[in-house]
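Hi there, hope your week has been kind to you so far. Thanks so much in advance, here it is.
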Amino acid sequence: MDENILLDLLELLDLVVFQYNKDNSFTLLSNKPDWLSDMLPDVDVTGSEISMMDELTYLGNFIVDADVFWQAGVSGKLNSGIWNEVSRSGIPCQFEASALNLKNRRILIIQRIGLGLTERQVKEQKIKENLLAFEDLSRIEEDLERYNFLLEAQVEKRTIDLRERIKELNCLFSISNLIQDKGLEVNDIYRGIIDLVQTGWQFPEITCARLTVDGVEYATQNWLETSWKQKSLIHVQDEETGFLEVCYLEQRPIQDEGPFLREERKLIDTICELLGRAIHRIRAVEDLAHSYLVLSKTFEDTIVAMGNIVETKDPYTWGHQIRVACLASEIAKEMNLPDETVRTINIAAKLHDIGKIYVPADILSRPGRLGALEFEIIKKHAQQGYDILSGIEFPWPIANIVLQHHERLDGSGYPAKLKEPQILREAKILAVADVVEAMSTDRPYRMALGLEKALQEISMKKGIAYDNEVVDSCIKLFKEKGFTFEH
């Protein structure tokens, strides 16, 4: 059809037709100045180019959606729905807009469909709009309910997983304590270990175990070698001295990772590592100083083993904990705190995020900003870490330090919103080290902000959120003593 004929036909209709240009302006194809100029008093509707369309609020919002539609390049039509405007002369009108894609031409059509509406008609229209908005809100609530249901199911599954991890942790600590009991004979230690092994596996009622050291066997009363078997070697100073075997007496539903969990495969290796070091200590019992070092190392390895179990769910968390422990220990030394306090801070730092085993893995590793509900789930890790660690008889306040590592001096932290006098000194040190490491390294949801940003953050909030002496010691380590996380 001839372009002029098309434009003449458009003039016969009670429409305003624009062509949308790439520079975000509009070319007027059909003009109705008798009502368009009344609706857009500040726009020259007699010209061919119009750029100020945002005087009609609803239309401005629709153009944003229309631009996305046009950019898609698919032929079709997008409607705005009916909206109300009051003209400069005070007359209420109703309008509807349409966006068209016509062979690379982006067309906007505005149609006046009602003039001179009564006050009652305007109110009725508002009621209709409110009902539509209510329907949208109802759909959103239904979607939220479905999301909450799925989230609750995930939390329930993670809670079951957590019970299994706690079993493994208690098994490791019980074995570690048994090894350190100087009042027991070697054979009693081995027999005690073999009984404890059953408690760490997913199905203890069908679990049996056998420990072989220097050719001597120690087995559970129900020992029976089956095809569902794990085995790990015990080495003492790189020499094989025995092995530990764990079997299931019957087949249970096989999961994706096989009859044994990944954590259980790591657990048997960790037990054998502890045994290897313990046997080395039992063989060198005359050297009390050396024995003490091995026991201390065994305890430290137990802490590492706990971190390894966390790592099976979130590999980032353990690397983060190690780096925070390094920095926190150096800050404590810079503050001239006693060696025992430095060690306490080091252990608490290595375990401060253990509560994250409660958090679904897809939330921990998700790129992009977390929603409010997901952030609330993550914030619970401090309390959940306390719940795990408070059941272990540490000679130091490890559980309370972990509980308070997100508290701030001004009460802006969590979970208890404690203020300066109520927060442990060790927790204040851990809080600063945690923030500096987190900002200096990459996270799943963002790239690293850099060390300078991290030091600016703690310096700016010194005395407000973070302890003055702790902040000064931390900055001194980096600025004057060349501390790096690579150390």
User: Anything to note?
Assistant: The CA atoms of residues 52 and 428 lie 56 Å apart. The mean pLDDT is 77.
